[in-house]
Write a structure and sequence with these properties.
262 residues; alpha/beta; DNA polymerase, domain 1; two-stranded antiparallel ribbon; 11 helices; 41% helix
Length: 262
């Protein structure tokens, strides 16, 4: 059930982009920080295909169960998990870097198949509703490909090959989501990957908000731990929600609207 009372109403010159609280409603959260993969979209099949090809070349055993362990962790950490079953000649740092670069190239090539249609109507409509309600929105992802993926989905102008007003008009026409995110923090901006809290700490700072008024939306245990270590609560979707890993466990993405009513 959606909370129908918007937490903000327009009042030029006050608050975020001219918004003020309505009817003295005290918001528990002011910012929503979304993980990317598994939350806003799904690229699991592309990750699996790329890692599987790399693993077969090593060779080392790799299956979908191992792939699930890679959710929410960095590319380098993912490789170390895969190498747990590796029995060949020990790999030096340069060899690992070459493997990581090859995996990313395979993955990036596969991602070029993505487009605005890979953004579900449920995610699009929910984000628009949150925007209408006046929440600050951010993406907090460990992926160094986050902006590229967001661009393919029509959520980030620079990745779409446009700049400025041209980019905004292009995205608005395709998805209705021009400038929907107030901040994007990805793997190129952090030193530590999840479960370290850095990505969410930086997202909150970019929004100009204290951690306690930010709600993280996640689908992986590492992300939930990162949120908690950052001093934030987490709402979980997907398998993490089914496993009740979050402070709030959602059956669907749009259920975030109900959580925000509490």
């Amino acid at each position: 059930m959606e909370c129908l009372e918007p937490p903000y109403s327009k009042n030029k010159g006050k608050g975020r982009e001219g918004y003020l609280p309505v009817n003295n409603i005290v918001m528990k959260w002011k910012g929503i920080i979304f993980d990317l993969d598994g939350v806003l979209c799904s690229t699991d099949q592309y990750h699996y295909m790329a890692w599987k090809r790399v693993a077969d070349q090593l060779p080392v055993y790799f299956d979908e169960e191992i792939n699930q362990r890679l959710r929410g962790v960095s590319r380098a950490e993912s490789l170390e998990i895969i190498l747990e079953k590796y029995t060949g000649t020990p790999l030096h740092t340069l060899e690992k870097q070459k493997i990581l670069a090859e995996k990313n190239q395979i993955y990036r090539t596969a991602l070029e198949q993505m487009n605005e249609q890979d953004l579900s109507a449920e995610v699009r409509d929910t984000i628009l509703r949150l925007r209408e309600k006046g929440y600050s929105l951010a993406v907090g992802s460990s992926s160094k490909n986050a902006r590229f993926i967001l661009g393919r989905l029509g959520l980030y102008a620079a990745s779409a090959g446009h700049t400025g007003k041209e980019a905004d008009m292009t995205i608005e026409k395709k998805t209705g989501l021009a400038n929907v995110f107030d901040a994007i923090i990805d793997g190129t901006q952090i030193t530590h990957s999840k479960p370290h809290p850095e990505v969410f700490q930086k997202a909150a700072a970019e929004l100009g908000l204290k951690p306690k008024v930010c709600l993280v939306v996640e689908d992986a245990a590492a992300g939930v731990e990162a949120a908690h270590r950052a001093g934030m609560e987490a709402a979980c979707v997907g398998q993490a929600g089914k496993d009740h890993l979050g402070d709030y466990n959602l059956e669907s993405f749009k259920d975030i609207l109900s959580v925000l009513c509490e």
